[in-house]
Structure formats: structure tokens, C-alpha cells
Amino acid sequence: MSTPQPSTDVRETLVSLAHRIVDSDGVDKLTVRRLAAEAGVSTMAVYTRFGSVGAVAAAVRERGFGEFADLMESVGETADPLADLYLQGLLYLRFAAAHPHLYSLMFQYTSPEWAAGQRAELVQNAAPAETEEGARAFGAMRRRVARAYPGGDTAITGVRAGEAWASTHGIAMLAMARLLAPEALDAVTESMMVALSVGHGARHADAADAFSRARGRLDPR
């Protein structure tokens, strides 16, 4: 007699509820007890499907990367590759601003209130570059970089993508921590993106014009 498998629809319901909890209240508010109560199931039902709260958070994190990857991939290839890259960066910052708790879970792994065992469980289940959705998100970013700065080999493109990611992530974290004034956010973002492009051989005026076009595509009037 085969062993019954946990119901897929219950698991998806639990992930959706956990995603909502994290997105609205933060990962430190995600507990098995709360999740079970909101889903109308026993705590054992959660443990049967996930094993731990860290594994639940890992599933939420992967779903977050899926949403993030969809957004990154929404920037298609046009005849304006530098503006495409800038638009992707602006969408990145918009995602972080709209989902600060989820973004923190995705890129900081977990809340400092979590025990070391819970933190290890999350990392074990969802290292971003090793999961399907995380790899998809980073792949989309890498492709935009490769088109904006052609001519480099795979290693150079990887370094350039890392520069763009690290810089954009830094602005996102400063803005979320309210260490970067809202009125300075646009100017700092433009200066950073344009400076990276100039460092890779673009003329400053051309890069600034491309940024203006990207901003126009972000919020068309």
C-alpha cells in the first residue's frame, strides 16, 4: 500500500498565507502556530508538509524570487539596451520599496530574532543562486548587462552584472532603512547607474539620455 502524500493544494495554501504574513508583517511574525491557525489546519499539518518554519520561509522566499524574476524578465530586448538595463534597475528598486519585508527575507535570509537552527534551515532550502527562481532572476539581470555592455567574455559579464546588482541592492537597502532621503533617491540612483556605464566606456551624455528614456518608460505620461 502506497504512503499517502501531503495534499498539494494545502501546501500551496500554506505558502500563499505565509507569503502574505511575511509581506505584510515580516518574517519574524511567521510562526507555525499562526500559519496553522490562519489556514484552519493543525500545526502537524504544517510540519508534515514542510518540517520546519525555516522550510516554510524558504518556500516563501522562492515565491518572492519568482515574482521578482517575472518583473526582471518583463524588460524585453529593445534597440535601446542601455535604457533596458536602467529600466530593469528602476524596477528592481520599485520591487524592494513595495515589498520591504519580502525583499529582506529574499536577500538577508532571515530575521535576527530567529535561532541559528532556523537560519540554517532556510539557507539549506533556498540559497538564491541555487534555486530555480533565484537563478531565473539573476539570469535576467545578467542578460540585460551583456547587451548593454557588449564585448566581454562570460567572466567579465558576470563581474559587470555583480557590480550592477551590488550597487542597486545597496541603494535599495539604504532606502528601506531610511538612510537615504526620498528626495535624494532619484539623483543617487541616476548618478550610480550612469557612473557604472561611463566606467564601461559609455559617454556620460549618452548614458544620462538613456537613463531619462528608462525613467520615461517606467512611468509613461
From TrEMBL:
It comes from the Bacteria. InterPro entries: Homeodomain-like_sf (IPR009057), HTH_TetR (IPR001647), MT1864/Rv1816-like_C (IPR025996), Tet_transcr_reg_TetR-rel_C_sf (IPR036271). This is TetR/AcrR family transcriptional regulator. Residues 31-50 bind DNA. Residues 8-68 form the HTH tetR-type domain. Keywords: DNA-binding, Transcription, Transcription regulation. One of its GO terms (molecular function) is DNA binding.
